[in-house]
Amino acid sequence: MKRAGGSPTVALNAKGIRMREEGIDILSFAAGEPDYDTPEPVKAAAIEAIRQNDTHYTSAAGTTALRRRIVRKLREENGIDVSEDGIIVTPGAKPALFAAMMCFLEPGDECLVLTPAYPSYRSGILMAGAGYVPVPLRFEDGFRVTRKMLEAKVTARSKMLIVCNPCNPTGHVLSAEEVRDIADFVLAHDLLLIADEIYEKLIYDGREHLSLGALPEISDRVITLNGLSKSAAMTGWRIGYSASSPSLARVMLKFQQNSLNCTAAFTQTASVAAFDCAAETEAMRLGYLRRRDLICDGLNAIPGITCPRAEGAFYAFFRVDHRGMSAGELAEYILEKERILLVPGTAFGEGGEGCLRMSFAADEASLHEALRRLGRLFG
Fold first, then answer.
1. What's the pLDDT score for residue 200?
2. Using an 8 Å Cβ cutoff, are 219 and 81 in contact?
3. Res. 351 pLDDT band, cuts 50 70 90
4. C-alpha angle 72/75/78, rounded to 5°?
5. In what order do the strands lie in the sheet with 110-115?
6. Please, what's the largest Cα pairwise distance for the chain?
């Protein structure tokens, strides 16, 4: 735990909440949370489940109904051929991530991570006692990954690679060429692959989401992570899952049985309905698309700011050229001068220097006001 440290994004979000409670006029864009409400059919299903006393333990892997629905979803939408025995339902996707790292990483192993990346990847690797090996991607290249970049970081101790697609924080969506390079790389070096696909439903401009677990040649070494937090605005419901071969799932299930036991019964029952809320999910995606264009156009109009259009997820990851300030100094400067809370790019590891992450999962009035304040500060 001393090696790992805390979560910078969670800490910054808590700071924003605390400042609001103190009456400070702050605009916080630190949290990775949809501002939409959970779809009504999901809420109705949860209420009915509670009335039917669906409030007891379930099997550690999850209810049969929900696991079967996840299997159907993965086969129909992602091309991932997985069985019910390969699904583990977890209270949020993060426990599935930690289960995979605790089960398959040991002291002396190394885990490669494409960076900038979700900070909990690094923390979990270190908690497992393994070595964290960043593979820094470049802002100038749109944060695209190549086989050459991966080969430069692999060693005899490499055991695992973690990929987030679409990426938090950069918004990059893997191309077919990148997917092929990653697959060839993990095969060549006999690696396990964690494919974090929590933002898969939030993709823009006609791009296609490609699941690494759908490739037959590597399907037995891929652990796909997903959930309903982003696609169905269910962050507080804590519903995530892992999908893998039964042999990998059996090991991870031991971790679940001995730690979390199971996910809340009535939230699992309600979650079955969430997979049929395609219209609500699409409405959210279109809303985020409008806000993406609003915030990217607005930021690019401010001198010294370069903001690529996010290809997926709901973050603007932009660079600010101002007085040679570091990412951390920029975030503090903006907070002090204009009361806007953003996450410094360095919170996401190598490749994030000089950048800031801003969630555009916020109401348009707040986004307009943030642009006004930033324009006043840097214009």
1. 98
2. yes
3. very high
4. 120
5. 87-90, 240-243, 222-227, 192-196, 158-164, 110-115, 131-136
6. 61
CA distances from 40 to 31, 79, 84, 233 (A): 23, 28, 27, 11
Q: What angle do CA 331, 35, 334 make, to 5 degrees?
A: 15
Percent of the chain with pLDDT over 70: 100
Question: For residue 304, is it left (φ>0), alpha (ψ between -120 and 50) or beta?
Answer: left
Helices in the chain by DSSP H: which ranges?
Answer: 8-21, 40-51, 64-73, 93-104, 119-127, 147-151, 176-188, 246-258, 265-274, 278-300, 327-338, 364-378
DSSP-derived pairing of the beta strands 110-115 and 192-196: unpaired
Decide if 268 contacts 63 (C-beta within 8 A): yes
DSSP for 312-373? BTTEEEEEE-STT--HHHHHHHHHHHH-EE-EEGGGG-TT-TTEEEEE--S-HHHHHHHHHH
HSE-CB for 201 with a 13 A CA cutoff: 26
**Is 0.90 topped by the overall pTM?**
yes
Check residue 190 and give left, alpha or beta (phi > 0: left; psi -120 to 50: alpha).
left
Amino acid at 156: A
Cβ-based burial of 121 (10 A; exposed 0-12, middle 13-18, buried ≥19): buried
Distance (Å, rounded) from C-alpha 222 to C-alpha 162? 10
Amino acid at 355: C
What's the CA angle centered on 66, arms 64 and 72, to 5 degrees?
100
Q: Which of these, 232, 211, 240, lies nearest to 97 by C-alpha position?
A: 240
Tell me the three state secondary structure of residue 150.
Answer: helix
**DSSP string covering 118-149, please?**
-HHHHHHHHHTT-EEEEEE--GGGTT---HHH
Bridge partners of 136? 115
pLDDT digit string, tens, across residues 203-252: 999 999 999 999 999 999 999 999 999 999 999 999 999 999 999 999 99
Structure tokens at 354: 């000089």
pLDDT of residue 45: 98
> Can you list the domains of the chain with their CATH numbers?
8-38+279-378 (3.90.1150.10), 54-276 (3.40.640.10)
Across-strand partners of 158?
110
